[in-house]
């Protein structure tokens, strides 16, 4: 049996405006994994953040990243399941798993956004929009220095992506990063076929709640118009789980807004489990 590590990582500082995703992460963990024991990465709700190197809250999030990465390296799990606040929490599990599987890892990024800004191109200075670029080795030195094996562009598969900054679009084009837009979700095999064509055996599945259509799933931090239906995402996740060895899975950026989104997430998890 594979060794599985469950992380509850309710960090909000990668967004830095408020702690709504902190509460959202805890709500997801309780609702979707009621009997699971999580390793909790503590993240204080009240914290004054400053900008360093073009990144809001860098000293706070970088220290938490280093501690989380050290924890994973010490426990050496085969699979990492993360329930998190912002997308910035992905830095530790993805960096660790790329070491663990020596680069045989496809990062399937179900997200409305590319998260491919660098500190000098980010319009906001919020790290949750920089995490993939950082994992590629182009980010804050406090992170990049800890990467024993940075990602390569061929490992990244964006899915449902539709809200990109101009610099991100140029980077995606120049680096040859795979993008499966929302309209391609009519084919549940589309992402799996792209991953298979590049020869990967292991996948990391990142699910930001803003991937879904906001009229169907409004309870997310950064809503983006359009997007695939929840059922279409579930179909793709099911196909990926059947076709590859899942080394990691994450759920991030949920914000409770009074909807029934957790019920919908339970249904999705029941389908893809």
Outline the structure in words.
This protein is an alpha/beta fold and 273 residues long. The chain is 34% helix and 16% strand. It is built from nine helices and ten strands. It has helices at 20-32, 58-75, 91-100, 131-135, 141-144, 166-175, 190-197, 230-243, 261-272, and strands spanning 4-9, 39-40, 51-52, 55-56, 79-84, 106-110, 156-159, 178-180, 202-208, 245-252. The chain is globular and about 45 Å long.
Total beta-strand segments: 10
> What percent strand?
15-25%
User: At the first level of CATH, what is the class?
Assistant: Alpha Beta
Corresponding CATH architecture: 3-Layer(aba) Sandwich
Elements, N to C (H/E): EHEEEHEHEHHEHEHEHEH
Which properties best describe this structure?
single chain; 273 residues; alpha/beta; Arginase, Chain A; 8-stranded parallel sheet; two-stranded antiparallel ribbon; globular
Summarize the structure.
The chain has 273 residues and is an alpha/beta fold.
